[in-house]
Amino acid sequence: QSALTQPRSVSGSPGQSVTISCTGTSSDVGRYNYVSWYQQHPGKAPKLIIFDVTKRPSGVPDRFSGSKSGNTASLTISGLQAEDEADYYCYSFAGSPWVFGGGTKVTVL
Amino acid sequence: EVQLVESGGGLVQPGKSLRLSCAASGFTFEDNVMHWVRQAPGKGLEWVSSINWLSANIHYADSVKGRFTISRDNGRNSLYLQMNSLRPEDMALYYCVKDIRSVLNNDYGLDVWGQGTTVTVSS
Lengths: 109, 123
Prior knowledge:
The structure holds 2 protein chains of 2 kinds. By secondary structure, chain A is mostly beta strands.
């Protein structure tokens, strides 16, 4: 049950786009279309922003989008806003267990 | 309003036990897969355990297998985590989490989170 690999940090200016990668293996990300993404602000519980690789829950802005290619899933934030500064985690089904990525801190410059 | 409220956390000595509870409201609890997820201070999220609607499919992270037991009482809209043989590395904020996955769909995602209950393991 190895954690999925995410970059520790990414940054961008307001209005720019940033992409966070989430690399797994053929046993998790590559095998199942059950990748989800979570946003966590300091001191708060995580919030679901993408599920089943590309789907957005109601209320999540369409600035957030998800994709997958092979063993790597990606979260793109378009039109970066100040409130997007947070930690982001990917999460994937991996057979019986589930596994999170190590988390990526997004900084809005 | 959909809500999850955890309780039962606290300070416990290494090797001792603790039972966490989670009270669910605002949705049909018996229909959904439920999870426990933890977060050590300053660290990332770690999936701990999951249980499906009939308690027929139960899974654990390797780090807690054999020591933790997840259970649910659909009549009481409650989820539990019995934690035995606690170790310092189990110290974390424990979240009760609802999955989108239910008897009605094939989607997966953790859509409702409680505020967490803190477990401190120290002598």
